[in-house]
């Protein structure tokens, strides 16, 4: 591996959400949070210039570093050419097959990423879809997005972005980073969340697609009473008896329901 000071660098590309970590103390903290153990398989999404990758490589683990930017792939290839436990993968996290990688390797994956902010949410949802091969994830988001992911019911931040991650994982807020920790500096603070994937969803869900419909209808009109916002799912459904059956007051607003109540409601649509 080349020494950090000899890393070739490229100018940041906005379209790939490139804000590179410029403070190695934060990179070290992120790697500590991931609690890498001997033999672990770590997938780093968006290694960039390798600020986190370098520290992961020092652990007794194998790192798959998935980078979309061709210029960076080349630089990373040179930087880590002599580093046996780092493999650079050219690809897009939005269509990468995490499940096949996990199944091929026969070990659960640990995911580490300073996510590109422009696609952080779709990448999170893609990872949650692949949760059967994932043990835990340490992911950096812009602070406002992290607050929404970890928000509790009754909070204004609570919404669709909170429900699915909280259904599938235990989430902890780990670290807050100021704009000055990055180059170029973004306009906002960043937060690192850790996700420990649960063996099974926290609550029983009979049809995840139905849960998605209920959640998105409820929050698309979050000021409306639930009985009105859920009408568009199925206007022939007897919503009053659905609400009665699960013991939820139909005049409540979406943000007051717990994750469990959303699951009960979605299950009752059958
Ligand atoms: N990990 C580096 C660091 O902390 O300095 C770079 C983080 S930078 C915020 C995001 C990285 O993700 C960039 O290297 C960018 O090229 C890469 N990236 C952007 N979109 C991606 C995608 N869809 N799949 C994989 N990598 C992506």
What does this structure look like?
The protein is an alpha/beta fold and 270 residues long. The protein folds into two domains: 4-197, Vaccinia Virus protein VP39 (Rossmann fold, 3-Layer(aba) Sandwich), CATH 3.40.50; 208-269, Helicase, Ruva Protein, domain 3 (Orthogonal Bundle), CATH 1.10.8.100. It contains eleven helices and nine strands. The chain has helices spanning 24-33, 53-57, 70-79, 98-105, 120-129, 143-150, 160-168, 208-220, 226-229, 239-246, 259-267, and strands at 20-21, 40-45, 61-67, 86-90, 109-114, 134-142, 169-177, 182-183, 190-197. A seven-stranded mixed sheet has the order 4-3-2-5-6-9-7, with helices on both faces. Strand 3 (61-67), helix 3 (70-79) and strand 4 form a beta-alpha-beta unit. The longest helix has 13 residues, at 208-220. The radius of gyration is 21 Å and the shape is elongated. The structure holds S-adenosylmethionine. The site of S-adenosylmethionine has 24 residues, from strand 1 and strand 3.
Beginning-to-end CA distance, first to last residue? 57 Å
Please mark out the parts with pLDDT under 50 across 5 or more consecutive residues, or reply none.
none
**Please, what is the average pLDDT?**
95
The H/E string reads EHEHEHEHEHEHHEEEHHHH
Q: Biggest sheet, in brief? A: 7 strands, mixed
CATH topology of the largest domain: Rossmann fold
**Associated small molecules:** S-adenosylmethionine
Name the structural class: alpha/beta
Number of DSSP helical runs: 11
| Strand-residue proportion | 15-25%
Overall structural domain count: 2
């Amino acid at each position: 591996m080349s020494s950090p000071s000899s890393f070739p660098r490229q100018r940041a590309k906005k379209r790939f959400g490139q804000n590179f970590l410029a403070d190695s103390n934060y990179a070290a903290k992120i790697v500590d949070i991931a609690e890498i153990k001997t033999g672990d398989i770590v997938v780093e999404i968006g290694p960039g210039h390798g600020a986190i990758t370098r520290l992961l490589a020092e652990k007794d683990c194998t790192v798959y570093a998935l980078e979309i930017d061709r210029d960076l792939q080349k630089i990373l290839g040179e930087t880590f050419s002599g580093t046996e436990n780092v493999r650079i993968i050219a690809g897009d996290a939005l269509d990468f097959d995490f499940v096949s990688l996990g199944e091929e390797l026969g070990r659960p994956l640990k995911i580490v990423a300073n996510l590109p902010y422009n696609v952080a949410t779709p990448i999170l949802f893609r990872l949650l879809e692949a949760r059967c091969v994932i043990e835990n994830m340490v992911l950096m988001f812009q602070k406002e997005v992290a607050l929404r992911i970890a928000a509790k019911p009754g909070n204004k931040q609570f919404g669709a972005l909170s429900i699915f991650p909280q259904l599938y994982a235990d989430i902890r807020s780990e670290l807050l980073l100021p704009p000055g920790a990055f180059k170029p500096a973004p306009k906002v603070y960043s937060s690192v969340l850790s996700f420990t994937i649960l063996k099974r969803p926290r609550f029983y869900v009979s049809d995840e697609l139905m849960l998605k419909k209920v959640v998105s209808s409820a929050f698309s009109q979050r000021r409306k009473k639930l009985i009105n916002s859920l009408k568009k799912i199925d206007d022939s459904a007897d919503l009053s008896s659905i609400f009665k059956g699960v013991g939820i007051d139909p005049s409540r607003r979406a943000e007051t329901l717990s994750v469990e109540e959303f699951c009960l409601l979605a299950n009752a649509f059958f």
